[in-house]
Design goal:
Heat Shock Protein 90; 18 strands
Length: 505
């Protein structure tokens, strides 16, 4: 196995180390350096990983003996001392046929320090975590009920008024003269009812207890949905909410309802702060941008209000901590938001700012998210025999459909919403099969595959398109070495069967 196969682990928060069978360390990520409080310069001095770990972890030798015996091993709690502090870790090791040992570390120091009583309480909190999230949603809904009722009454009043106007128009002796007016009144009613439907749909989706299932989403649409949900709270306040975006909106692989909940919480907190402080020209700015390396999406939520005091900044994410008056805040919102972002392999931070409060959310771009979606330990254990299928389509509903179709198959799904994202994914990891849409903006499927072939990339390709492009596919099949075509709409059996046909060649 090429050591480049482990590069995608750079962005994980879990510590990982890879070594050759002769003991030479060939890879470690930043989280490993943090856990063992070391540096790349110090690691270069380590000639044998067994000697390195045995010198700091007394029981490492017995763990490694089990690894040699069974080709994989899971340690008990291993204690060691770093910088006069007792640390406890659990290590999972896998012996690969490629000639590598892969070691995964979990830091359980904090849990180890807890006594049995607090351990039981922590387990109880974990078991009731989803109920706490649901309770917090209901609390937010309760605070917004009056505003939402008012928001529904506005379009409802418009609809009733226009209905009465239609009634008056129908009393005319010559209905032909009223045709234009009736059509206008009818359109106003449709718009009003559509507005009411959107408000109710937002409420239902937000209240619905979501599962951990993830989907590909347009980041701007997720933010706009959260803004729409909080919009009743800014009526009459003069608060303006702006979205700043450079270029195309980033694509996220997320649990949409949970991430929307995070944005609703941050935006509502900003609204409350601006309103309570009676800030002049109140403004909430939401910034969307992609990091230069393309691996992460950054979303900033900031306001020009009074901000958060220095003494409260360190406690802002603590459970049950709130700066609001009794009865107005539970202290669960930011704590739960932080857990939701962490469950997406992301990070929620409160940044230093000269004016107002500035929160930054960092989430993996869809390439990285695709690798850690599910059990990434299985991805490492089975990477030798794993079939990676990269689906390239600018329609997010197609990516979500393919991901669901392949979720219980033997194939590992990776998604890209453009040729540019696909190029980046191909640099990050070895892909076994590419399925690409023919018609895409900027760079279409044909141009994408021609560029791959020009770069001597011979990955098998399936085109996924409508019947309109069948003849074009036949013309390019031999030239580009295409393996088949999937006609939209398609079934799960058709998708899995087309992939299986290539794998079984």
């Amino acid at each position: 196995m090429d050591t480049d196969s482990f590069i995608f682990l750079d962005d994980l928060f879990e510590p990982v180390l890879v070594a050759d069978f002769d003991g030479t360390i060939v890879y470690y990520n930043a989280s490993f350096l943090t856990l063992f409080r070391t540096t790349p310069r110090m690691m270069k001095k380590q000639l044998d990983f067994k000697e390195y770990f045995s010198s700091i972890i007394p029981d490492f030798a017995s763990f490694f003996a089990n690894l040699m015996k069974d080709d994989q091993a899971l340690s008990t709690e291993l204690n060691f001392i770093i910088e006069a502090q007792v640390c406890t870790i659990i290590v999972k090791g896998v012996k690969k046929e490629s000639g590598h040992y892969v070691l995964l570390f979990k830091d359980v120091t904090v849990e180890k320090l807890l006594n049995d009583k607090y351990r039981a309480q922590l387990e109880e909190l974990k078991n009731t975590h989803s109920q706490i999230i649901q309770s917090d949603k209901l609390k937010v809904i309760g605070e917004m009920t009056a505003n939402i009722s008012h928001e529904i009454n506005n379009p409802l009043t418009v609809a009733i008024g226009n209905s009465e106007l239609i009634g008056f128009a129908l009393e005319s002796d010559d209905l032909n003269t009223q045709r234009v007016s009736i059509a206008k009144f009818s359109t106003n009613i449709d718009h009003s009812l559509d507005r009411i439907n959107k408000i109710i749909s937002n409420m239902k989706e937000y209240l619905h207890k979501s599962e951990d299932k993830k989907e590909y989403c347009d980041a701007r649409e997720v933010v706009e949905k959260a803004i729409a949900f909080t919009s009743p709270s800014i009526k009459g306040t003069g608060i303006e909410i702006k979205i700043q975006l450079d270029g195309l909106a980033p694509i996220l692989l997320i649990n949409r309802v949970k991430i929307e909940q995070v944005f609703v919480n941050l935006i509502q907190n900003a609204i409350d702060s601006l309103r309570d402080a009676k800030t002049k020209d109140p403004l909430i700015t939401i910034e969307l941008k992609i990091e230069k390396n393309g691996n992460f999406i950054q979303i900033g939520v900031k306001d020009n209000g009074p901000g958060i005091s220095k003494e409260n900044r360190a406690k802002i994410f603590n459970t049950f901590f709130t700066t609001k008056e009794i009865g107005k805040g539970t202290g669960l919102g930011l704590s739960i938001s932080n857990r939701i972002i962490e469950s997406h392999q992301g990070k929620l931070e409160l940044l230093e700012s000269k004016l107002g409060a500035h929160f930054k959310i960092t989430l993996p771009a869809i390439g990285i998210a695709g690798h850690v979606n599910g059990n990434w330990e299985k991805l490492i254990n089975d990477s030798d025999k794993l079939v990676r299928v990269l689906v390239v389509d600018n329609e997010l509903n197609i990516l979500n459909l393919c991901m669901n179709f392949l979720s219980d198959s033997d194939y590992h799904f990776l998604g890209a919403s453009s040729a540019a994202e696909a190029y980046q994914e191909l640099e990050r990891v070895n892909v076994d099969i590419i399925i690409t849409d023919m018609k895409m903006p900027l760079v279409d499927g044909e141009s994408f595959i021609r560029e791959l072939r020009a770069q001597k990339i011979t990955v098998p390709v399936l085109f996924m398109t409508s019947k309109d492009f069948v003849d074009k596919y036949k013309m390019m099949k031999e030239e580009l070495g295409l393996k088949g075509i999937i006609i939209k709409p398609f079934t799960k059996d058709e998708l899995v069967g087309a992939i299986g046909a290539i794998v079984n060649e």
